[in-house]
Amino acid sequence: FASPINQKPLDLGADLSLHSASKYLGGHSDITAGALMTSQALAEPVAAWRKNLGQLLAPETAALLSRSLRTLPVRIRQHNENALAVAQAMEKHPKVSKVHYPGLPSFDDHELAKQQMAGFGGMLSIEVNGGRDAAARVADNLKVFLLATSLGGVESLVSQPSATSHYGLSPEEREKRGIGEGMLRLSVGLEDVEDLIGDLQQALG
Question: Domain 73-204 in CATH: superfamily?
């Protein structure tokens, strides 16, 4: 979810880079699209496949995506700034045991992220003391962050993986994947950052 503004996989040696244009590239939660970046040689068979099967974007979707790409650098810059500020504030909160964000020195791969990324993106997660029920109360008490499993739009969203995206896994399986019962995933949007931090602080209590 770094977007091409923050990280360029082809420059790092990847042959293919696949983007969900529904997320940051579109950025307004109003399209479903994808984008594949690769060399001309690898792109030709993909283009032939699309031509034969007719998998093309609808004109309206293409127009909305084109509109969004004009503001992509500005939006990503603000996502980066807001998410870093939120992560730093949450790291200091007594009811948060851990913050996962590549822009923090406490992040396990922070040095690698600094080498590979121009910015650290708008996605982070926090681990709330008290486990699943405590995290659910925080999510329910948020006013600015909306409860949804999507991400990458101008609006800030919160989801609880143990109750949504990873509900089908046992607690042990989730733990192996680094998904604690008290984890909340935050997609930090473009609202005023003080409003976002204040919202989290009041919800945490």
Answer: Aspartate Aminotransferase, domain 1 (3.90.1150.10)
